[in-house]
Structure formats: C-alpha cells, structure tokens
Amino acid sequence: MILLGIETSCDETAAAVLVDGAVRSNVIYSQIAKHAPYGGVVPEIASRDHVKKLPGIIEEALHEAACSFKQLDGIAVTYGPGLASSLLIGYSAARALSRRIDIPLTGVHHHEGHIYSVFLGENPPVLEGSFPMLVLLVSGGDTKLVYVTEPGSYTIIGQTIDDAAGEALDKGATLLGLGYPGGPVIQRTAEGGNPQAVRFPRGLDNAGGDWKYAIDRQFCFSFSGLKTSLLYYVRKHPEWMDNERAGRDLAASYQEAVTDALIIRVGRALKQYTCASFACAGGVSLNKVLREKLGRLSATTGIPLHLSAPRLCTDNAAMIAGAAYIKLSRGYPYTIPEDVHPTLQLEDWRQNNGV
C-alpha cells in the first residue's frame, strides 16, 4: 500500500510517501521565520504560504520516494483540529488530487498522527503488544493524557484547563524577551542554568475550590498560573535582565516547572491505569529535559517508553499517512470528510465505521 500524506493544519506545509507503513519521504516546509516577528502564528500568512508551497512540496515528496502519482493507492490528509484556513488548503488539494487521479482519500485526525508517529522511523517499536498505552500529547495548543486501549480506541483521562504546555513555553519566552518559538529558545537559554533557582508552581497543586470538569483533577494540567508567576517574578527582579547567569537560572527554573507538571500527571496515571507502554508525542516532546525525565520514569516503573524520532515530533505528513495506514490495515474503510473540522475531537474508530 502506497500512501501520500498531506499536512497543513498550522504553519508547516508537509507531504510524505509511505510504502506499507515505512516512510519513503517526509518533506516539511516550516513557516517559523515568517511568524516569528509576530510572536505566534498569523492564520492569513500561514494559509497564503500553504497555497504557494504545497504543490512543490508534494512533487518533492514523490520525487524523493521515487514514486509517481499513478503508483499511489490512496491519499491521507489532516482535516482537523487546526487553523481553519490552513486545514482548508491541504484538504482542498487532497480532494482535488484524489478526484483527478481517481484514488481514494481518507481524513486523519491531527492528534492521531502524533500518537502513531511513535511507531514510525528507524527501528520503531512493534505495534502489537504496546497496548494499552498511555499517551502524553503535547502538541501545539493542546496538552492531554490519552489512554489508548487499542489502536483507534481513546479515553481522554486528563487535559489542560487553560494554556497548553507549548503555549506556556511560548508565553514564557516572550516574557523573558527570548523570541519565538518558545520551547527551543528556552531550552537553549536554560543550558547550564540551575533549575532549582526559582520555585514556580506546577499547576493545580492546591486541592481547594470547586472542580467543574468531568475528568479527574489529578490528571489535569494548568499553566496560566505559571505564566503569571513568571510575570510577577520578572517585574519584582528586573536585575536578571543584566545578569546572564540569572537569566539561565530563570529559564531553567521555568522549564523545570513545565516539564515537572507534565511528569507528575504521567506518573499518577501510570500508577492507576494498566499500561503495556507509555508514549509522549507532539512538538513539546522534542524537549531534552522532558525526554530525560520520561526516560527516568520508564526506568523506575519498568514500563516501556515510546518517543517519536525528532523529525517526527513537530507537524509532518508522515505521521498523517502512518495513522491512515494503521487504520486501513485494520480493515477500516477510507472515510472522506465533508469539510475541515478545526475543533475536531478524538473519536473511537468504531463510532463511524461498523467494523
């Protein structure tokens, strides 16, 4: 089975070719430089750039895979969640291409792509035997704990109630005057710093007050208080601006709080849920400190850890085609979405397919 994957949910324009689930090409064009002056993604700029770049990216992916349009068996495209205007570019291109060369099209949930990206790349873990699997999903504007009993069967057991981890890093970097995107620049600045120099909150530390959410508080995340705490600290201690050492310590302490908040909830969930493995996926999973902490947690619990290859952590099309391949190989049909769905939620595959 040869699949073309297309991904344009935010600010990466990507296309990939998978052959029987193996990545043959994975071409990514990042728009970071275009959005950096604004401190975040500007939807109109993103969608206009997708229009310009996507045709060439698709051609490049096919060329790298030594594959022609005629050899494709199907197309997989992200149709949500994401920026509506960006999603529409990839979806429209995929649908037109599907009709033009008369091959089936299937829609893929962006987060499913991240989840199954841990099973791609060189020497990936075996799919069978990895479930039930707990997944820490730290992708762009979302932070979730997902319990995956088998491929396509999801239960969200925890999520952020305000900012996502990635947003907390972006906003923290802005407050520190470090630039955009926040995750990589904070990690670089924090190198050599003391992560214990400043004690920042880990979110939802105090059990007081009413809890209005349906999911268990102990598995949920909150980063808005952390951001506010950093703001107050910077105002109270302006001297850090002229002290390189203090700046490294501050960045390291902030990064420590973000990663600690994630690890604490993963550890709790691993104690309560039966897991054959656990995983971390999404752009923030690139963070070196987070990866080290997850590795130590795996060693302590004895539960295998799955991490995406670095190139598959950020948004890419190989993960979209990979998720589609797993779904199709298990007997689920191609499902053409009627339109893009910017707020698409994870749903069990059996809900929409009588398999």
Descriptive keywords:
single chain, 355 residues, alpha/beta, Nucleotidyltransferase, domain 5, 2 domains, five-stranded mixed sheet, 11 helices, 10 strands, 19% strand, globular
Overall pLDDT metric: 94
With strands numbered from the N-terminus, the spatial order across the biggest sheet is 3-2-1-4-5
CATH fold category name of the largest domain? Nucleotidyltransferase, domain 5
Uncertain stretches of 5 or more adjacent residues = none
- Rounded to an integer in angstroms, the radius of gyration calculated over CA atoms is 20 Å
Distance between the termini: 20 Å
Number of strands: 10
- Tally of helical segments: 11
Please, what is the CATH homologous superfamily of the largest domain?
A: ATPase, nucleotide binding domain
- What about the largest sheet? 5 strands, mixed
- Strand proportion, as a percent range, falls in 15-25%
Order of helices and strands: EEEHHEHEHEEEHHHHEHEHH
Note down, in words, how this protein is organized.
- The protein is of the alpha/beta class.
- The chain folds into two domains: 2-117 and 313-352, Nucleotidyltransferase, domain 5, CATH 3.30.420.40; 130-308, Nucleotidyltransferase, domain 5, CATH 3.30.420.40.
- It contains eleven helices and ten strands.
- It has helices spanning 32-35, 43-64, 84-101, 110-116, 165-175, 182-190, 224-236, 244-272, 288-301, 318-329, 349-352, and strands at 2-7, 12-19, 22-30, 74-80, 105-109, 133-139, 142-150, 153-159, 277-281, 305-307.
- The strands form two sheets. It has a five-stranded mixed beta sheet, sandwiched between helices. Strands 8-7-6-9-10 form a five-stranded mixed beta sheet, with helices on both faces.
- Strand 6 (133-139) and strand 7 form a beta hairpin.
- Helix 2 runs parallel beside helix 3 (84-101), helix 5 (165-175) crosses helix 6 (182-190) and helix 5 packs antiparallel against helix 8.
- The chain is globular and about 65 Å long.
- The chain starts with a strand and ends with a helix.
